[in-house]
Design a protein that fits this description.
The complex is a heterodimer of chains A (443) and B (534). With 443 residues, chain A is mainly α. Chain A has 17 helices and 8 strands. In chain B, 49% of the residues lie in helices and 13% in strands. The chains are: A mainly alpha (443), B alpha+beta (534). At the A-B interface, helix 2, helix 3, helix 16 and helix 17 of A face helix 6, helix 23, strand 14, strand 15 and strand 16 of B.
């Protein structure tokens, strides 16, 4: 839109004086965690994510007991012997086994009163990552009795509007996530058994890649996948493995300290009434804007520095983008100011990231310290996702698929991966050279 | 010049391992190399292709490292280079080498400019890499490569020809026996008792001068046709069971090591060594076989019991220069390699021979041949059906029903909810139409492709390797796969997933709990007939 370049590309009400600068660092976008109150239940998160994926929700409050009753009524009408319902009741409903026949059954947890605020925040990570991806329904192969149950459920569903509140911060990850969702949706049983692992992986890699990409805004371009090195959980983490040492856990941990400071600042810059944009896109808008951004940004920077009592030296720039840089510098500086409690708040925040999003991917290795690991289950899941609808993939292309999803490995782990695939039997060699290794998926 | 020096040309560390265009006519070892050269079928096809190449044609010679591509290219480039360009790409690594890809880009560009015929010797992995990473200005070539790699021959341009070492299998499987023309010819030529054989001349000369040594004993033993056969069988087992590629370089080095190693031939064969083939063959060491006869032999040997037949074996071995065997394992290995040799006929061997037989390889080879040569005849169907009914379908049924072992034949476990099992009756049988259609495809030695259908619905083809076949047989015998058998589990799970998708389409379900059994039938019109309630 041509008009866009003449309007202010950020918050029109951006504080311009010390008195107007908010005291508090609020965060309501791009990251699901807060400094506390982050406990969540995967069942609820999964229900909420599936609700958005299907664009479906319950028409009205619909308890499990109501569903059970409706199924009983429907089947009793059809069964030649009504007493047989008692068998079906025991089979499917007494222990809630009916939840394992289709992902749509997991929508029960997507109802009000069935989830809490933290569940909702975590699910919003995935809902924003999928950016309006939609699956109309799953193609389960159900027997004719189970199809009746699904019909009863579907009669109680209505369409749901899904509004995207944030433009994707990491488009390469959004693209991978969408592709993987489409693949999983074509295999409902696999989705049912692996969805928690799937979301757990993406929760982690989103956090990791965001922490690495968040400083890379000056280019005004979409971030690419950033190298972050993993080893398999049975490998040794020797000191000479440079990438593992420098670009593994250490890099992730250090980068995590930037997430909260920069995102709270970005929150203040967002325009109201619009989808929120990543910092790299905000920078692009500012750069291309015909509006006089410089004065507003400079006034805000000076006011912010004064309000936070910072003595950060600011670069005297003639360009708006330079003052955006000053603002980013200031927001990081406030969280290093030992005269306040902000450093400990940020440290606590980083701890919550590891505790809730990264726990499955970090291992302590004694003298080697902590390393990022891929266990066998995640390796198999990732392999299946990358290969997707192909029969098999060249090992090199498989590694590229891992990289798109934020997983990098060094040469030694490449060898371990091949040994792993050989052990589980899904390697096909077309010659005895390493470069003709093809990997099959396991489903 | 002695026998050991001459045999050195076979070693992988020898400068003769790969030909160069250096003039070596004056070299003393050249006569041995020239003698030992074996022309292969792929070389004959290659030579013929060269004579018929036209402007704009490209011939791809593809294989593994060590297959002998450079050997063939070197032999012919001198003769044809005036009108044909030759290019040998030596790259093999885990990641595409950008330099090698750019070199190929340049090569193809020149070829398009000059329109001279091109012969390209290339590792098959590099073909895959180039098909993905090559310049878009060569999309025509990239499409051709992809068509070749996908065995999609109708999409290969007429001016492109692919000679793939993998399609010239080094083993031939037939009903009677397994052979390897290449390995057999090579060993036979090396050890042939002919005046034209310069190696044999050295062998004779050494025996006359200094009597038998381990080297001459090994050379002589390897010259026996039956020993050659046993060695070829071991190579086939390494290929099938250990998936070890057999390349010319590896084979030459293997022969070098079993003859010149520090022990007798039979120990060199089974005690490993710095050669991929040997490191795999050691797991077939016959002294590790535990049968009553073998264990008895080891016990008797330790006790020093004299036996007339055993003494005869010792005497027979001495005639070939084998002295001083001082442990029972070595005797077992000797017995193994001469098990088919008439000159070693004695009661001891006859007893042990049966324990040395390997039925798994024979069974695999038989089914491999049946699938490759299937002609649709009733007698062949009958034979194939044995494998399908008794091994493949039986193991699928057994594995599928591992949680419900009392189910009938043709009844398959589908799911379990709160202790209630759902099962369905399915008709599973071989898909002879697909087997016949598939038999036209180039056969790879490492597996054959099985085709089954469920209620007339074809399942995805299932590659059956010898390892998988072994596991399928064990499953039918009651073995339960564990996490170390993932290969079988994955393929079985895939087949069973498709089978159960078919089961869920049935309009009849059986529900079982303890000793109660119900049948529910979807009669249509929202009516479900239930039987079995009491």
């Amino acid at each position: 839109m041509i008009n866009d370049q003449y309007s202010v590309p950020f918050n029109e009400n951006l504080a311009q004086t010390k008195e107007d600068v908010p005291n508090k660092n609020a965060l309501n976008s791009y990251f699901p965690l807060r400094t506390k109150g982050n406990d969540f239940e995967w069942d609820a998160v999964i229900g909420l994510v599936l609700s958005s994926l299907l664009r479906k929700e319950m028409k009205s409050k619909y308890s499990y007991e109501d569903f059970n009753h409706d199924c009983k009524k429907s089947l009793e009408e059809k069964l030649s012997e009504s007493e047989f319902w008692q068998v079906l009741q025991q089979m499917y409903f007494d222990e809630k086994d009916v939840f394992s026949i289709s992902p749509e059954l997991l929508l029960f947890r997507a109802q009000k009163n069935e989830f809490n605020t933290s569940d909702q925040r975590i699910s919003s990570l995935f809902i924003n990552l999928m950016q309006a991806e939609r699956v109309s329904q799953f193609d389960e192969k159900l027997n004719f009795i189970e199809q009746e149950f699904l019909c009863v459920l579907r009669a109680h569903l209505k369409d749901k509007q899904v509004k995207i509140k944030e433009e994707s911060y990491l488009p390469h990850l959004t693209n991978a996530f969408k592709a993987d969702l489409r693949f999983l949706s074509s295999k409902p049983k696999y989705l049912l058994s692996e969805f928690k692992h799937f979301l757990s992986f993406y929760g982690f890699t989103y956090a990791a890649q965001l922490s690495l990409a968040i400083s890379d805004w000056i280019t005004c371009e979409e971030p690419k996948s950033k190298p972050l090195y993993f080893i398999m959980d049975h490998e040794k983490a020797s000191n000479e493995r440079t990438h593992v040492k420098l670009h593994g856990y250490k890099l992730f941990s250090e980068s995590s300290f930037k997430v909260f400071p920069i995102l709270t600042m970005l929150e203040q810059l967002q325009k109201e009434g619009q989808a929120k944009v990543p910092l790299w896109k905000m920078a692009e808008k500012i750069k291309l804007s015909e509006y006089d951004c410089l004065n507003k940004l400079r006034n805000f920077a000076l006011a912010f520095r004064s309000q936070r009592n910072l003595d950060t030296k600011l670069e005297d720039s003639e360009q708006a983008i330079g003052w955006l840089g000053n603002i980013v510098k200031l927001t990081e500086a406030q969280f290093r100011d030992d005269k306040t409690d902000r450093p400990s708040i940020n440290k606590k925040y980083v701890g919550e990231i590891e505790k809730y999003l990264a726990y499955g991917f970090i291992q302590s290795r004694g003298r080697s310290g902590k390393v990022l690991v891929l266990n066998q289950d995640y390796t198999i899941l990732l392999t299946n996702l990358v290969i997707a609808h192909e029969d098999k993939l060249r090992f090199h292309e498989l590694l590229l698929g891992f990289q798109q999803r934020g997983i990098f490995v060094d040469k030694q782990t490449e060898q371990e991966l091949i040994k792993f695939y050989e052990r589980i039997g899904n390697i096909e060699r077309m010659s005895d050279s390493g470069d003709a290794v093809y990997v099959r998926k396991t489903i | 010049m002695n026998l050991e020096q001459a045999l050195g040309i076979l070693s992988k560390s020898s400068p003769y391992a790969v030909s160069t265009e250096l003039d070596n006519s004056q070299d003393k070892l050249a006569v041995y190399k020239k003698y030992i050269y074996i022309e292969t079928e792929i070389e004959a096809d290659f030579a013929q292709s060269l004579t018929s190449m036209n402007s704009g044609d490209i011939l791809f010679l593809c294989g593994s490292s060590g297959d002998g591509k450079s050997e063939i290219l070197t032999r012919y480039s001198q003769q044809f280079k005036s009108r044909i360009d030759f290019h040998l790409d030596a790259t093999h690594s885990f990641s595409p080498d950008q330099t090698a890809i750019e070199a190929l880009d340049d090569r193809f560009l020149k070829t398009k400019q000059t329109q001279r015929p091109l012969v390209l010797g290339v590792n098959i992995g590099m073909l895959g890499n180039y098909a993905e990473e090559g310049s878009t200005s060569h999309d025509d070539i990239k499409s051709s490569l992809k068509a070749f790699l996908d065995s999609n021959s109708q999409n290969i341009p007429e001016n492109h020809r692919y000679l793939d070492f993998e399609h010239y299998p080094k083993f031939k499987l037939s009903q009677e026996e397994c052979t390897s023309e290449f390995a057999d010819s090579l060993i036979h030529k090396l050890t042939n008792t002919s005046l034209e054989n310069p190696f044999y001349a050295l062998y004779q000369n050494q025996i006359q001068k200094t009597g038998h040594s381990r080297l001459t004993a090994n050379f002589g033993l390897l010259g026996l046709e039956s020993v050659r056969k046993t060695v070829v069988d071991l190579l086939l087992k390494a290929r099938l069971i250990k998936d070890q590629f057999l390349t010319a370089r590896t084979l030459l080095d293997f022969i070098h090591q079993i003859i010149t190693g520090k022990s007798y031939l039979f120990d060199n064969l089974f005690l490993g060594g710095d050669n991929d083939l040997l490191s795999h063959i050691r797991s077939f060491d016959p002294s590790n076989i535990h049968t009553r006869k073998v264990d008895e032999f080891i016990l008797q040997f330790s006790l020093g019991i004299e036996d007339e037949e055993f003494l005869l074996l010792e005497k027979q071995a001495r005639e070939y220069g084998v002295f001083e065997i001082n442990n029972p394992q070595s005797y077992l290995r000797l017995a193994y390699i001469v098990k088919n040799e008439a000159e070693f006929d004695n009661a001891y061997l006859n007893d042990l021979r049966r324990d040395f037989e390997n039925t798994l390889v024979a069974r695999f080879a038989n089914n491999w041949v049946l699938h490759k040569d299937f002609d649709g005849s009733g007698s062949q169907k009958k034979e194939l059906n044995l494998f399908y009914k008794e091994v493949l379908i039986a193991s699928i049924h057994k594995y599928c029903n591992r949680h419900a072992p009392t189910l009938d034949k043709d009844t398959f476990f589908v799911a379990q909810y709160n202790g209630f099992k759902i099962a369905a009756e399915l008709e599973v049988k071989p898909n002879f139409v697909e087997i016949a259609a598939n038999s036209a495809n180039p056969a790879r030695i490492g597996y054959f492709v099985a085709h089954i259908q469920v209620d007339d619905q074809p399942l995805i083809p299932m590659p059956i390797s010898i390892k998988l076949m072994e596991l399928l047989i064990k499953i039918t015998q009651g073995y339960r796969p564990n996490k170390h058998d993932k290969n079988a589990v994955l393929l079985l799970d895939e087949a069973i997933d498709q089978l159960l998708n078919q089961a869920n389409r049935k309009n009849v379900l059986t529900i079982i709990k303890d000793d109660r059994r119900y049948k529910v039938t979807d009669e249509g019109d929202s009516y479900f007939e239930v039987s079995g309630l009491v």
